[in-house]
Amino acid sequence: MSFIDLIKTRRNTKSFKPDPISMDQLYEWLEAGTLAPNHRMTEPWEVLIVGDETRQKLNHKTNFHQAPLVLAVLSKDGRHDFETKENALATACFIQNFQLAAWAEEGVCTFWSSMGSSERNRDILGVPDNYDVIGLFGVGYPVEHVEPKTRIPIQQKVKQLP
Q1: Which of 60, 79, 86, 143 gives a 20 to 30 Å CA spacing to 155?
Q2: Structural domain boundaries in the chain
């Protein structure tokens, strides 16, 4: 599969098979994430593997769609506001690399939830004050492949400046 096809076929899913994810594979995909661009090589990401007890406390309305694995991805604050924003962007790139690696290698998908940013859930996860929760992710093999949603044509999003 070409890289463009890989990007075009990767999806978030809301329906997971119960098949477990190998920790060796997980670490390989996370390692691919670390090759993401990050300003000043801050490597601001941290990953929490959410265990069953913590998962129950989070009380997600769908239990992360029964994904066999849940991760929380954090971004460390920078020395100033601009660096904090750069770090969050770099962490999003880390996440994209991780998702593409998981899809390319094993056909593994994710479900991205922003619920980790609430104070209650930050406390449950034990997130330090100097970190932002970029997302909580259900990770697993999809029950079915989801077709892409219609996107606005890129020509409508590009402006050429003089």
Answers
A1: 86
A2: 3-156
Tell me the CATH class for 3-156.
alpha beta
Measured CA to CA, the distance from residue 84 to residue 78 in angstroms comes to 4
Q: Which pTM does this prediction carry?
A: 0.95
Burial profile 108-142: b = 16 or more Cβ within 10 angstroms, e = fewer: bbbbebebbeeeebbebbebeeebbbbbbbbbbbb
In terms of Cβ atoms closer than 10 Å to its own Cβ (0-12, 13-18, 19+), residue 42 is middle
pLDDT on residue 21: 97
Of 141, 63, 46, which Cα lies nearest the Cα of 102? Answer: 141
